[in-house]
Amino acid sequence: MCEPTGPRPLDYLAMPVGQFLEVLSAGEATPGGGAAAALAVALGASLCAMAARLSAKQLSAPTGSAIELAEEAERLRDNVAPLCQADAEAYGRVIDALRMPAEPDAARRRDAVAKSL
After folding, report:
1. Which pLDDT belongs to residue 44?
2. Has residue 82 got a pLDDT over 90?
3. By residue range, what is the domain housing residue 100?
4. pTM of the predicted protein model
5. Under a CB-based contact definition with an 8 Å cutoff, are residues 31 and 88 in contact?
6. Handedness of CA 82, 15, 33, 73 (dihedral sign)
7. How many domains would you assign to the chain?
8. Residue 23 phi/psi, 5° resolution?
9. What is the widest separation between alpha-carbon atoms in the chain?
C-alpha cells in the first residue's frame, strides 16, 4: 500500500464550523465534496435526534419509538461523521499513488492506486 507522503489532513471534526467552511472554500483539493457530504449527513442525523427527543418530551409519556429514533440517528451520526476525515485521507493516498512514476514499474503504480481506493 502507498503510504501518504504529504501532510496529514487537518482534523475537520475538531474545527469550529466557520473554520471548516473557510478550509472547504479555500481552493485546495481537500476537504472536498465527500467531506462536505459526510458532514451534511451527520448534521441531518443530529437534527433528527434532536427532533425525536423534543417530540418525546411533548408527549405525555415518552414513547419508545421516539427514543429509539433518536438513538438510531445518533448511531448514524457517529458512523458517518468520521467519513468527513476519511474522505480527505483516502484522497491523499490516491494522489500519492498517482504521483508514483509510471515507468519502469507501471503495475506497481497501478496496484498502489487500486489499494488506495
Report:
1. 97
2. yes
3. 30-116
4. 0.77
5. yes
6. positive
7. 1
8. -65, -40
9. 72
Instruction: Pick the closest to residue 32 from 115, 76, 94 (CA basis).
Output: 94
* 24 domain-assigned: no
CA gap 35, 84 in Å, rounded = 4
Q: What band does 22 get if pLDDT is binned at 50, 70 and 90?
A: very high
Amino acid identity for residue 98 in this structure: L
Q: Are 12 and 35 in contact (CB under 8 A)?
A: yes
Q: What are the C-alpha distances in Å from 92 to residues 27, 38, 47, 71, 86?
A: 15, 17, 31, 33, 10
Q: Which three cell numbers stand for residue 52?
A: 425525536
Instruction: Answer whether 50's CB lies under 8 Å from 57's CB.
Output: no
Q: Tell me, yes or no, whether 69 lies in a domain.
A: yes
Residue 1 has what pLDDT?
43
State the amino acid at position 104 in one-letter form. Answer: P
Helical H segments across 1-117, by residue range? 17-24, 33-58, 64-80, 83-98, 106-116
